[in-house]
# Entry
Amino acid sequence: MNKRSEKIIDRLDAPEIFCDGALAISFRQDMLRFTLYSDRVDAEERANINRVVVGQLALPSAGFVDLYNQMTAVMARLTQAGKVREVEKLQQQPS
# Structure
């Protein structure tokens, strides 16, 4: 079987998106859709922080599975490096 390798083309003009998190994630029409937000301080009332939508990310389910696998590998490396720790699992209550 002849496998062709895919060429990665790095576009220097591709926009970089910073976000503080995902405001919503939905699954519709075989696409996972992420609404990304960034926290912004209100200029007039400095005590208020607003969540501003900064982008939308849509992935087909196969792309989401690939992203999930890559993120799982990164989480394992962060855990091993002591940057994050596993969440304690709740003990099930006897019924």
